[in-house]
User: What shape does this take?
Amino acid sequence: MKMVVRSKVFTENQEKLARYCKALAHPVRIFIMDYLAVNHDKCCYSGDMAEILPIARSTLSAHLKELKDAGLIQGEIKAPYIKYCINKGNREEAGKLLIDFFKK
Assistant: This one.
């Protein structure tokens, strides 16, 4: 039996860009990123966002998890609260990848 070995089709940057775009592909997550960017000098508690957004806390938690899994935000747990901040390095990388993609 022959094994078929496929060469890697996608570049590392293409995979990163796809992950960032997937994480940003919902208006609530765009709102969260905007909210955190406006409050860039401090981190924000998820409870603060829950008071503003007309969604269940569990739904907000799922959106925060998606952004965190993509590396766009980072969270710090101080029970019973969780503070979130933008991961500035990954946000800058995502912005550069998007700019480079649209310049082609």
The radius of gyration is 17 Å. The mean pLDDT is 91.
